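Reminder to self: tokens first, then the designed residues, so the page reads top to bottom the way the pipeline ran.
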């Protein structure tokens, strides 16, 4: 196997995490103890916002009036795509039941969660698409109450396009809160909202850490880190398209990894030559973000064969994975660890990020080894049920009693014994510990 790093990252996604963890824990503790008022204090401190926290219907209507007709059309288009894909996912999730033996029927039901909290970034970039991805999916899943929060701008409030989108997609309540305080408000049920059963949505490292700390107390979509992109490319790839797809994700932030696995040395060298030139075309702050991301986190890996590319890609388990190679069907069948897969140069991460349909809230930092992205199923819990007749107890109770006694759990065994005694008083059973 021949794998050569032409460029290797100086930093990893875990760099600097402990400092963030300490800050987030302190803020969460403060807000849990201080409630609404403490959340308001942090809104004033971090968001420089002292206005209403719960956005009124009148304010949402006023915000909609500020959104252009073209942008409304675009938002509705993207919403329709995401909704249709989510509905297809929901249709594929089925309840089930089976008669395991005569008189014993068991099954499962898929039940929506009661309350979801959706975080929508709105600081440097106004993430309209994130509002669509999270709220629409929760709505299709059948969540009863959807609370969304987004950072307000000083003196202005939540971005009008975000407010229009949240209302269109079905958010029941919108909070003008960002960062840790927004996550805390949804988790703890502040400002008259129901405590969230699950927290979803992308955000900076403070938002991600708040969700991580709260996991277990509430569900979360996934453990999130900075946005990632990996491109696998061979000699058939267009180097300019490859470079823009790497740079387009690197602009997310200074710590957003962009990785290239190349099966062709000429392509790899061409990409490394072009990246700085293309980054220079970006506006500020995007340019500074992309420069730092490529310098500290970017990698170019040269491999000799497709199976080597698959091995490296599956080890990284990247959030976004693009394939610019011949024989796309082979790659679809061979790759297994990724958040979302984009096949062919006609398909780019940006399409998935904004409009094409599948969800863009995806696993990072290697989590794609064990989970997929946000889906209807994340807002549902699969719960089991069972029912059996007295006749079915004849066999089930005997086996249960013997296994329970083998394990030293006499109380468990007695729950089986009492039923056999009640319903089969004339019969004698072997209820001793299984040998």
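Designed residues (435 positions):
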């Amino acid at each position: 196997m021949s794998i050569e790093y032409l460029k290797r990252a100086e930093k990893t996604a875990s760099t600097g995490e402990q400092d963030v963890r300490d800050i987030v824990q302190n803020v969460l503790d403060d807000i849990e103890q201080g409630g609404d008022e403490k959340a308001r204090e942090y809104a004033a401190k971090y968001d420089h916002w002292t206005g209403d926290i719960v956005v009124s219907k009148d304010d949402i209507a006023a915000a909609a009036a500020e959104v252009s007709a073209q942008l409304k059309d675009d938002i509705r288009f993207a919403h329709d795509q995401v909704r249709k894909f989510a509905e297809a996912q929901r249709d594929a999730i089925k309840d089930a039941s089976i008669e395991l033996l005569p008189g014993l029927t068991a099954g499962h039901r898929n039940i929506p969660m009661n309350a979801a909290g959706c975080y929508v970034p709105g600081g440097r970039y106004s993430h309209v698409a994130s509002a669509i991805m999270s709220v629409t999916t929760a709505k299709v899943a059948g969540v009863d109450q959807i609370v969304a929060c987004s950072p307000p701008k000083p003196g202005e409030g939540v971005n009008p396009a975000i407010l229009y989108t949240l209302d269109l997609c079905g958010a029941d309540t919108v909070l003008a809160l960002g960062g840790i305080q927004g996550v805390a408000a949804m988790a703890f049920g502040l400002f008259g909202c129901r405590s969230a059963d699950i927290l979803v949505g992308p955000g900076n490292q403070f938002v991600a850490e708040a969700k991580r700390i709260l996991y277990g107390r509430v569900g979360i979509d996934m453990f999130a880190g900075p946005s990632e992109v990996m491109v696998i490319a061979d000699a058939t790839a267009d180097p300019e398209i490859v470079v823009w797809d790497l740079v387009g994700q690197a602009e997310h932030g200074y710590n957003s990894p962009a990785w290239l696995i190349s099966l062709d040395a000429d392509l790899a060298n061409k990409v490394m030559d072009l990246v700085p030139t293309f980054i220079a075309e970006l506006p500020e702050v995007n340019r500074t973000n992309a420069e730092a991301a490529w310098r500290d986190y970017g990698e170019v890996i040269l491999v000799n064969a497709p199976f080597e590319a698959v091995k490296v890609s599956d080890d990284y388990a990247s959030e976004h994975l693009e394939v610019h190679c011949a024989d796309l069907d082979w790659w679809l069948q061979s790759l297994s660890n990724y958040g979302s897969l984009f096949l062919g140069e006609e398909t780019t991460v940006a399409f998935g990020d904004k409009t094409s349909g599948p969800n863009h809230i995806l696993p990072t930092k290697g989590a794609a080894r064990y989970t997929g992205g946000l889906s209807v199923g994340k807002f549902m819990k699969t719960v089991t049920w069972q029912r059996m007749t007295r006749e079915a107890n004849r066999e089930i109770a005997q086996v249960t009693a013997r296994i329970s006694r083998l394990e030293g759990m006499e109380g468990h065994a007695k729950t089986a014994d009492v039923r056999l005694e009640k319903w089969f008083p004339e019969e004698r059973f072997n209820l001793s510990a299984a040998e």
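The mean pLDDT is 95.
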